[in-house]
Amino acid sequence: MRFEYAPAPESRSVVTLRDSYGLFIGGSFVPGSSVFKTISPATEEVLAEVTHGGPEDVDRAVAAARQAYERIWSAMPGRERGKYLFRIARLIAERARELAVLETMDNGKPIRESRDVDIPLAAAHFFYHAGWADKLGYAGFGPSPRPLGVAGQVIPWNFPLLMLAWKIAPALACGNTVVLKPAETTPLTALMFAEICQQADLPPGVVNIVTGDGATGHALVAHPGIDKVAFTGSTAVGKEIARLCATDGKRVTLELGGKAANIVFDDAPVDQAVEGIVNGIFFNQGHVCCAGSRLLVQESVAGDVLAALKRRMATLRLGDPLDKNTDVGAINSRAQLEKIHLLAQAGESEGASRWSAPCQLPDRGFWFPPTVFTEVSQAHRVAREEIFGPVLSVLTFRTPAEAVQKANNTPYGLSAGVWTEKGSLILWMASRLRAGVVWANTFNRFDPSSPFGGYKESGFGREGGRHGLEAYLDVLGGGDV
Amino acid sequence: MVLGDPGGIVASDTSLRRFLHGLPGVDEVGARARADTLATRSVKADAKRQALDLAISMIDLTTLEGQDTPGKVRAMCAKARRPGSGAPPVAAVCVYPDLVPVARAVLSSGAVLSSGAVLSGADGEGAGNGQRSGVAGRVRVASVATAFPSGRAAREVKLADVRSAVAAGADEVDMVIDRGAFLSGRYLEVHEEILAVKSCCGDAHLKVILETGELGTLDNVRRASWLAMLAGADFIKTSTGKVAPAATLPVTLVMLEAVRDFLVLGGRRVGVKPAGGIRTAKDAIRYLVLVYETAGESWLDPRYFRIGASSLLNDLLMQREKMETGRYSGPDYMTVD
Asked: How far apart are CA B90 and CA B93, in angstroms?
């Protein structure tokens, strides 16, 4: 019989947005030279006006961070720093609904994901690192490892608050202060986080948020007053940052693009593998650096797996990101949508075969239907370039060795997935895949205690876990080891 | 392909094991995660109204207690026919074999028996006549049998149990599989027993209870589902309600995947019945969501999906009234059986 879910939108009334936001420098919001607007990608409506941070604003922010570092934060005992982090973690958890709705409005991702993944994980990162703050002497970097100083951090638009947490939580736990630049299209949850810092009575200057575009990011990364650069974003920008920092001795960690292989063997648990494929590439509209954008499926089961995948894709619900039943939300920006269109067209013109489930796209906003390309070869652009959208390329293989060879045949190396009921094969594959994370019979699972980072052009350095602390500590002999 | 068994799947324990263990495995973590995600679906307004009535029409209203009496069964049957305030009748009542005549007498009296044989073995396809229930005419009588709930009796005793239920007028027979035989790999024995029971059912529909709470793994749930379907089950059912855990969302998810795949492979649509532990409207709606997004809309029909429950009906009625009036009434406004 006909059955259809009624609309179930999450209420926007939990969020109180100001018309205009300044820069968060030295513990308060201050005006800057010019402003820009941030919109909802699902409706194209303007949500708020945000300040564009110029070089002089970056100067002020770095100075505030330096002052806070020297006078307060680096001298504060770890157990006291930990209390602030615990307080921030609790405030994120308390204001989770508000943050989730705002994240969805500004980013376009489904509320189900911001509510069940982004915000709980962001809180978890602060809880986890709060616990490290007074135990750094036991992290394996000597008895009293020292902080680095001021960290300049630039984050992407795909998981705005979560990426902020990945950057700020370890930096603060290790005794550094930060200047963070959120992405141009998704600044709002970072600004709400600034309010949370005020609410937590965090000493002024420990966290500074400077909104703006690539120029602002460039000014921050190039600033002589910072000791450490942490960047998550595109490989092109990452290379530029690496060049910039190569000359001035800054410590750098980069978390860049990916073109992960999700490898399905013929003995895989098919129903769960299909869920893993869907979660791997359509989670967050495919705006995930570790997305499983290349499906490598063993030739003998390719037909069955693809049939099951297409059947499953037909049940994906695309639409209003605030609707609690939405699975696939809006593409974050017009520019990103155009890039996805461009690569999808390249896929067609190079001879791959394109398929999407019948799907009504909303009239306003930026949308792209979940899409799968079959008959893809390693030479096709859709198999080599990061699309960063809901587009899956399907390739086949015959033997485990061929799977490894194809999976590693990419300039990237961020993540991989292996689906098989055979434990020994999982271990054999994991030891040969050149990827920072290998998921076995799951995909896109994150935990603050698990280090995350890439091989090759996917970047260097790890975030999360004990390994992630290293990026924010002076482990090269500067401390009193 | 499967139904004619040209490959000799059911020739021996070995051949059956080869087939059942060759089915794709179930990753427990992944299956649970999928069930958890679907449990977050938000069913509101018109969709909820529709879901509540649909759930009511899918209930096998059940009493399976040693203390059951004819009076209790009559009361339950009266409620099954007219749950109250415009709610649709439930799909069936489910009782022990000795109480089948009582249930049958109440439910046949004055009922519209327009289609005579009432949903015979022909699957009732197309018998819906635009009616949602598709179960023609009256509330059906289901009887548990085969030494329910343990199934620990001689084969002849179990078959006699089935014959007596059918002779007393049961429209549906809920049998239990021999879990001991299943767990020790005597698949052929389980298969033969289901076949034997099926042959005693006549026109009555056969529901095969897997007792998933005793099977231990979701892999076993998938294998037992296929074994029952291969042997001719019209429905596969999770539980007796006498073993904890009874019905769960992950178990039902795996069974729904099995019937979906069986239709693709064998061309026959088998029903699914979670039973035991489903007590609230919210729970029931979660099961409907599971059906909708796993097997598809065509299974959202009392011919292919049932919920075995007793106290659930009152909660559904209460939520239904809340949708209509905007208020909750007290428990005294819901009948006790």
From this structure: 8
- Which residues on chain B are in Cβ contact (under 8 Å) with A421? 25
Whichever domain contains B231, its CATH number is 3.20.20.70
Is the pLDDT score of B43 beyond 90? yes
Domain boundaries, chain A: 12-256+457-474, 261-447
pLDDT digits (tens, 9 = 90+) for A403-459: 999 999 999 999 999 999 999 999 999 999 999 999 999 999 999 999 999 999 999
Indicate whether B239 belongs to any domain: yes
Tokens representing B79? Answer: 């409620």
Helix (H) or strand (E) holding A272: helix A270-282
Q: Residue B337 is encoded by which pair of tokens?
A: 């059986």
ipTM field: 0.95
Q: Which of B60, B161, B174, B283 is catalytic?
A: B174
Q: How far apart are CA A85 and CA A65, in angstroms?
A: 17
d(CA A294, CA A292): 6
CB contact under 8 A, B25 and A267: yes
Pairwise CB contact (< 8 Å): A269 & B41: no
A116 contact residues in B (CB cutoff 8 A) = 40
Q: Annotated catalytic, B237?
A: yes
> Which residues, in sequence order, are CB contacts of B125 under 8 Å at separation 6+?
none
Q: Which amino acid is at A79?
A: R
| pTM of the shown model | 0.94
Residue B31 resides in a domain: yes
Residues of A designated catalytic = 255, 289
Assigned CATH topology for domain A261-447: Aldehyde Dehydrogenase; Chain A, domain 2 (3.40.309)
- Mapping DSSP onto H, E and C, the string for chain B reads CCCCCCCCHHHCHHHHHHHHCCCCCCCHHHHHHHHHHHCCCCCCHHHHHHHHHHHHHCEEEECCCCCCCHHHHHHHHHHHHCCCCCCCCCCEEEECHHHHHHHHHHHHCCCCCCCCCCCCCCCCCCCCCCCCCCCCCCCEEEEECCCCCCCCCCHHHHHHHHHHHHHCCCCEEEEECCHHHHHCCCHHHHHHHHHHHHHHHCCCEEEEECCHHHCCCHHHHHHHHHHHHHCCCCEEECCCCCCCCCCCHHHHHHHHHHHHHHHHHHCCCCEEECECCCCCHHHHHHHHHHHHHHCCHHHCCCCCECEEECCHHHHHHHHHHHHHHCCCCCHHHCCCC
Facing B26 at nearest CB: one of A1, A116, A269? A269
Residue A294, Cβ neighbours under 10 Å: how many?
28
Spatial distance between the Cα atoms of A122 and A99, rounded to a whole number of angstroms = 10
Specify if B102 maps to a domain.
yes
Q: What is the pLDDT of residues A63-94, one digit of tens each?
A: 999 999 999 999 999 999 999 999 999 999 99
Residues of chain A contacting B257 with CB distance shorter than 8 Å: 271
Is residue B242 annotated as a catalytic residue, yes or no? Answer: no
Domain for residue B56, yes or no?
Answer: yes
Closest to A38 in 3D by CA, of A12, A20, A11, A56 = A20
- Give the 3-state secondary structure of residue A251: strand
Q: What residues contact residue A390 under an 8 Å CB cut-off, 6+ apart?
A: A281, A282, A285, A286, A328, A340, A368, A369, A370, A371
